[in-house]
Amino acid sequence: MNCGIDSPQDWRDLLLEASTGPEIKAVVEKTVRALPAVRRAELIETPEMSDHEPAIAGVGFFHTAFPDVTGHCFSIPLPASAEALWIEAARPENAATIANELAPLLERADHLLHRHQRREELEREVVRLEHSEQIQRALFAISQLSGSDREMSEVLRGIHEIVGTLMYAENFFIMLLDPTHDTIRLLYFVDVEDPVLFDELPCDDIKHSATWYVLRQGKALRGTRDHLATQVDGPLRLVGTYSSDWLGVPMLRDGAVHGAIVVQSYKPGTGF
After folding, report:
1. Which residues contact 219 (CB under 8 A, 6 or more apart)?
2. Which of 140, 172, 184 is nearest to 266 (CA)?
3. pLDDT averaged over consecutive 10-residue blocks of the chain (272 residues)?
4. Which secondary structure element, helix H or strand E, spans residue 123, and what is its range?
5. Residue 149 has what DSSP assignment?
6. Cα separation, 40 vs 216, whole angstroms
């Protein structure tokens, strides 16, 4: 293959040296772009092409290449990695020749990309399993705390510490809702910026705050202030110091909201 590199074996050497998916793609794109018959080339994911589009006769690699209406641009699918090589040829009649010339390179690259994708999938699965195990340990520790004869303040402090093993939780509070009187009470509160804002008060006193929406809507809210505003069905009011990221989760019993647990971060880049 006259790929424009010093030796026909150069692309093989470069693929052997590539250790990541992006590096493999870079080798493919550099090699293809060096072909005299190629104007542009790009390796893309999930290409938009349909099975009923006509194939270019004589294409040896994976048997199918999908041209556009001009015949200058076409895509060659890499089935194992679910990638596709998009090419703009200098002349329409070059498409089949280019595809056949690239067959050894693309076949090898497809195999390597698929192998790297599989490895990344396995690594993500390991992380997921480790996180799941961590959550199970945390839930077990919380159940042990709840069933102990410790003072409530000690139990809540222990829950805070356990949550802190799962995520950033330097600022953490638990709020109880009395649905009969529509009042809220701070059961536990730790925050680096704000003092304890109240002990007990009517729920309407925090109306339209993020916590109020968690209690009223009965669903979790998470994100920056701008993001939170898109998740609620009314105006969003700031109560306390502005936080860069916020997460509130309702506490439910028999489908009814009885409180909320909130963590927040004042540090940009430290989110949930």
Report:
1. 250
2. 172
3. 48 88 92 90 68 39 50 84 89 80 91 92 90 90 87 91 92 93 93 86 93 94 93 91 94 93 91 83
4. helix 95-146
5. -
6. 55
